[in-house]
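Shipment paperwork, digital attachment
Item: protein structure file
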Amino acid sequence: MGKSAKLPKKKCCVDKPRCDRCPLRALAEGTLPAGYTVKKRRLVKVAKAA
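Attachment content:
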């Protein structure tokens, strides 16, 4: 069995270099789960369009 993917952290810790679970890093790499985005260094759910 392979590694299980973890959700990014809820808030970026602003460490340099970026940690493996950083939401900013996941956003840049395109590995954020569907339905999530990053606003003000925090992981947030995207509201569904009505």
